[in-house]
Amino acid sequence: MIEEWWNQISNDPRRCWWCKTRAFQKCFGCFIICSDKFIRKGLGRILLFFVYGLVTFVLLMAFFVALPYESLWMPKPLMFILVIIAVYLFINILYHYSKACNTPAGRPPKKIEQDPNGPPIPICYRCQTPKDINTHHCSLCDECVVNMDHHCVWINRCVGAGNHRYFLQFTGFLALACFLYCTISFTTFYYNYWHL
Ligand SMILES: [Zn+2]
Ligand SMILES: [Zn+2]
């Protein structure tokens, strides 16, 4: 039933010139598909550069403003350890971010062994692949994703079985770096801005 409806719509010669999936007369549906495409091809790519730019900006601020300023009063061995930790964290943030962006989220296998006594495995009507438990079809990526967590606009793809690990490591290292940055600069902040 749904398949028939979908074929009818996608074969319509009056379909949208951009998304090529829905007919013009279904303008609200067409608007959703076009905005999906905008998020994936436009906004998502802009946000990728934004994140790289932001991380690089914080890196430059840490190495050329915060750490030199703190080194005026901090003991040298402590500064040396802090610089090593900062380099380690920033390399890990950039590495895991690029891995999370470039690793496929994980598509389900084309065929799954059907248990004769178990319930039938549902099929995704868009991908025509078995849709096992925890597999979800992402309308933005237009593909099924195993163990789908969410579609992340900051990495411009889904977070699923394939890149879950990299995504968590990226957020973990990012949180650690923020914590370290705040801890190091707290004394300066306290005496110069808060304690006036
Ligand atoms: Zn699907
Ligand atoms: Zn997605």
From TrEMBL:
Domain notes: The DHHC domain is required for palmitoyltransferase activity.
Keywords annotated in UniProt: Acyltransferase, Membrane, Transferase, Transmembrane, Transmembrane helix
Organism from which the protein derives: Panagrolaimus davidi
GO molecular function: protein-cysteine S-palmitoyltransferase activity
Catalytic EC class: transferase
Bilayer-crossing regions: 46-66, 78-97, 166-191
GO cellular component, one term: membrane
Membrane topology: Multi-pass membrane protein
Protein known as: Palmitoyltransferase
EC number: 2.3.1.225
